[in-house]
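Teaching note: in complex prediction, the entire set of molecules is handled at once rather than each chain in isolation. The prompt given to students was simply: 'Predict the structure of this complex.' The entities are:
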Amino acid sequence: MKRGPSPFNVVSVALGLAFLYLPIVILVIYSFNASRLVTVWGGWSLVWYRELLNDEAILSAAWISFRLAFLSATAATVLGTLAAVSLTRMGRFRGRLLFSGMVYAPLVMPEVITGLSLLLLFVALNVDRGFWTVVIAHTTLTTCFVTVIVQSRLIGFDRSLEEAAMDLGCPPFRTFMTITLPLIAPAIAAGWMLAFSLSLDDLVIASFTTGPGATTLPIRIYSEVRLGVKPEINAICTIMIAVVALGTVISSLMTKKGASQRERAALGAPV
Amino acid sequence: MVILLPYLWLAIFFLAPFVIVLKISLSQSVLAQPPYTPVLDLTAGWQGLKEFAAQLSLDSFRLLASDSLYLLSYVKSLQVASISTALLFALGYPIAYGMARAPRAWQPMLVMAVVLPFWTSFLIRIYAWINILQRDGLLNDVLMRLHIIDAPAAWLSSDTAIYIGMVYSYLPFMVLPLYASLEKIDESLLEAASDLGCPSWKAFWLVTFPLSLPGVAAGALLSFIPIVGEFVIPDLLGGSESQMIGQTLWTEFFSNRDWPVASAIAIALLGLLLVPLLFYERLQQRSLEGGRT
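The expected output is the structure of the full assembly:
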């Protein structure tokens, strides 16, 4: 479609974006509000950020969540990339239907079901619940997101590069490491970031699979939010939004740079 | 070789747990840890298997069918999911259509703008709405200043709040598949229609809309399925008078500690979602593998 947008098109996109961003903007602004009440503007202030620094419980929960997200995103990236490669490159194999079913199902499976079933597995295996059970749960949840992102990239690119390398006598594993991996690297990075932010965000699955001593940030925030709005929560939310926004900007710049390098390489120009 | 690692991981941590849920949903609750009875004793061999089979009971499922509380929460979940999906479609379609009609150079940025909120925490976005909807929140403040209402209205703890939360959280899930299918439509088809004297609203209805149907299906499934089992949104924004099925499962598990009933709810929920899930799987496979020759 390429005809110009009508006023109706412009208005609907603008209203849609306003609807998506306004609540977040309001939240960020109120994290700097000196007053405790949402409706009363008490002037700009960093008081809630200072308060946050003294909140031992929130800080330790944030540290746990951060380590958790790092570990599970890394494991999910390895598993998800392997799954994507086998789904796109191996053609038909026995159990393919079951495999692709297992890969796509967690994407939309209600979290209460995934959480409950993983917990019951850990109980059946007699595993003590805590940090590591949440790592396993989050890895399982986020693997499928990595797979879908990497898979769409693998389908999109030119296989003749791989074939050329193999024709010239490059063994398959080396071809994968030197040709395929650099080409799909942006998708792998994007997959890792998505896995990281999903793990940082998850409340339901973590609540089911966690144990004593492993209270994640969302669990902490959730228990505070149930008691009502607190300005400190606005502050921690703003910090999390800033981290995610920064990460997204960096990764999109990286992808853009990678893309323009690839284009130049494809045109035969020196990179 | 390559496939073995992810295959095994998913088999152990995704597939096997469902078998266990099914097993526990068929057992009886007891006051112990873990709070359910039959444990399959494989060392006892055939005899153990027979005893295990004899102990299986449908009590939990009977309870689900007999107590109207459970039935009501299933109905409520389906109702919320259907209405939310319809609202999402009504709001998402003009947005996706506008994005597809925007200048080419703008489109990646618009897609990014729609995706970005999805990357920020789900919990934070719901919490942001509490700031707005609470009794002394912004919405009441603005409405009262504009003299639309005289006294603060209770927005929070209502179905309205649930619908706002659902539409807000799942909008990217609806807009992106719609945009993907609208953006692919060949402009020359619409030109041909207009050359043959078809008014543009009719061309939209006869050409554009039918060609965007795969996107409509994908968007509807991607929203409907997770909304049915949603827990956080109804728990934080909704009222306490009626629960969605995700909340009922949560209460059975964490408050009542009745694991067999919680498992039975999960199995029944899965059964409810089986048809949309299968549809979704087929769509997903077709869209991902359709590009391959």
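Point out the following to students. The CA atoms of residues 118 and 137 of chain A lie 7 Å apart. Residues 267-271 of chain A have pLDDT under 50 and may be disordered.
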